Amino acid sequence: MPQDNKEKRKSGDKKPSNSFQTPKGTRDVLPDEWPVVEKITNTAKSLSEFYNFLRIDTPILEQSDLFVRGVGLGTDIVEKEIYLLTTKGGDNLALRPEYTAPVMRSYIQHGMSHLPQPRRLWYIGPVFRHETPQAMRYRQFTQFGMEIIGSADPIFDAEIIIAFYRLSEELKIKNVTIEINSIGCKTCQPAYKKKLSEYYKKLDICDDCKTRAEKNPLRLLDCKDPKCQPFKQTAPVILDNLCPACRQHFRQVLEYLDEAKIPYVLNPRLVRGLDYYSRTVFETFVEGETAALASGGRYDYLAELIGGRSTPAVGAAAGIERIAEVIKNKGISVQPKAKGKVFLIHVGDMSKKKSLSLVEEFRRAGIPVFNEPSKESLSAQMELAAKNNAPLVLIFGQKESYEESIIIRDMESGVQEVVPLSKAAEEVKKRLR
Ligand SMILES: [Zn+2]
Ligand SMILES: [Zn+2]
């Protein structure tokens, strides 16, 4: 046996594959990226709270049929991008590729229709799509979203759009455009789809579009193939084909946006890639960036598609990584330079030994203090304090540890003073004020 092992090692003398990498399309969020991520997350959270949304979360895993029926068979998400798995018990599950269907599933499951309507819900968490990784398209990314479930009133369409517009405002992202459209309802959409499909069938379209013309004609307008681009311009426009109720609904959404002074442009060719949308759809774009920042719309039929009662709803979502990329591209500074913490310097073994409990004492007194036990020399520690913008440095040397005192040094003026240890917290607080 040992002989065998040796043989194997010899023949497989290549580098052992013991170094791991993140799976394709996924990434680590390293410490220097967190300030931006946290800024976006906190802004999203406070915005949701401001607009009276309540937080919800759903499992990362759902029954795969939820998305097949909710998002739709003919969509990219379900056909190409969804991660499916079969459990040992034989259940077919999916990593959630989006949140809207799970949130609606939760609304139905927990009988939220019995609570005052509409329900305003928000979420933030990871979603998974097996896309071809391109710049800033991750297979695991973080989605923030808001949903208003239980009302068909156009004022809620406007509220969602306004909330997402405010999100970019609060993050200081400038030149945001909202593209908006209405894609009609059960009454008016079928006739339009037929028109669209007939128009495209006469043209020399790509293979994907040939399938779309049969299965999902609205998606014809979403084709990215250069071959199909010229056909869009003269394609029948849905806005000309809306039923009176949809036209009225859309007009009211726009009136609310006008009232709130939210800039938008009509894009009669905007359709969303998901089957559950009806009436209002929108996407927000930043000047100079091709991908949408946020997108959403009304989904009055989703509840029925997944086995609930008819429940009108509207919502939208944005990818945190996308927003972070825009913030980076635009060179937006997300936060004022952080105020440094007080730095505690130890010199010598005895002082090092005591420094740990000393730091704790300051923390208990509500003073943010940090130290670096791995550094021994005074100068190295001073350097570190300066690098971290410490407003004050506490020098606790051999002498001070005997005398139960500590030196407080003001880093700006360079003035230092010896104070008794028992008064240190109080003195530090005074200086920080
Ligand atoms: Zn309609
Ligand atoms: Zn095409």
What's the quick description here?
Helix content is 38%, strand content 20%. The chain has 433 residues and is an alpha+beta fold. Bound molecules: zinc ion (2 copies).
- Helix/strand-derived category reads alpha+beta
Might you state the CATH topology name of the largest domain?
Answer: BirA Bifunctional Protein, domain 2
* Distinct small molecules: zinc ion
The low-confidence runs, each spanning 5 or more residues with pLDDT under 50, are 1-13
The strand count comes to: 16
CATH architecture of the largest domain: 2-Layer Sandwich
Distance between the termini: 72 Å
> What topology, given as strand order, has the largest sheet?
1-5-6-11-10-9-7-8
* CATH level-4 homologous superfamily of the largest domain: Bira Bifunctional Protein, Domain 2
Major sheet summary line: 8 strands, mixed
Domain count: 2
Radius of gyration using CA atoms only:
29 Å
Percent strand equals 15-25%
Helical segment count:
16
Give the % helix: 25-40%
CATH class of the largest domain equals Alpha Beta
On the 0 to 100 scale, the average pLDDT is 91
Q: Using the alpha-carbon principal axes, give the shape.
A: elongated
Could you walk me through the main structural features you see in this protein, from its secondary elements to its overall organization?
The termini are far apart. Residues 1-13 have low confidence and may be disordered. The strands form 3 sheets. The protein has an 8-stranded mixed sheet with strand order 1-5-6-11-10-9-7-8, sandwiched between helices. Helix 7 packs antiparallel against helix 8 (207-215). It folds into 2 domains: 31-188 and 242-329, Bira Bifunctional Protein, Domain 2 (BirA Bifunctional Protein, domain 2, 2-Layer Sandwich), CATH 3.30.930.10; 342-432, Rossmann fold, CATH 3.40.50.800. The protein has helices spanning 2-11, 34-50, 64-70, 76-81, 100-109, 154-170, 189-201, 207-215, 229-233, 244-259, 302-305, 320-329, 349-364, 378-387, 398-403, 424-432, and strands at residues 54-55, 61-63, 83-86, 92-95, 119-128, 140-149, 176-182, 264-266, 278-286, 294-298, 313-319, 342-346, 369-371, 392-396, 405-410, 416-420. It contains 16 helices and 16 strands. One zinc ion (ZN) is lined by residues 205-206, 208-209, 223, 225, 228.
